[in-house]
Amino acid sequence: MKKRLIVFFFLISLIAHPQGKLLRADFKNPSLWLIYNKPTPVWKDTIELDKTDNDGMMVLKDFEMTNGTIEFDVKGANLLQQSFVGVAFNVQDSQTYEHVYFRPFNFMNADTARRSRAVQYASLPDAPWFKLRGDFPGKYENKVKPVPDPDDWFHARVVVDRPFIRVYVNNHPVPCLEVKSLAPARPGKIAIWAGPATYAKFKNLVVTPSFNH
Q: Once rounded to an integer, what is the mean pLDDT over residues 196-200?
């Protein structure tokens, strides 16, 4: 009964959610989340997603938005091909969503080509990263500015203002990535996301929906 009341009041807060008012995601309440392809985490203010062989995410169940801002703090690692961290939005199911993610191992890479692949946009299932890189090199990924410590926490802000998606790091006024969405404009869920072979930490997830069209 207590769990039902918690969910009920959470839903009421969303229904009464005025335009522009932020929502702070509660990582301590497992009933609010749906997990795809990741082990069940310890439910606390800082969520740790453990390594798996595939992409995985933790979806906020009873909330949807079309446009808005997603802010979060995230910590990956400077481990080549073992750190892919970000958020998914426009989540329809475990295979259909847009996402923005970072490759911390490329933040300070000596290879300039790798540095230009530090932040990525993709839209599944039709436009995964490898298809976008092959068809539109350099268009849907970019270097990160300012450059965070790849082994430390950094702050990210993803602004979904369709058709545009803009990504900002550590409160810098200029986006490090700006692209046009490749998915239909429709309500979808929000998730924290981690790629294969990735151990990731997340905290301070805040979502501010917008009703601009």
A: 98
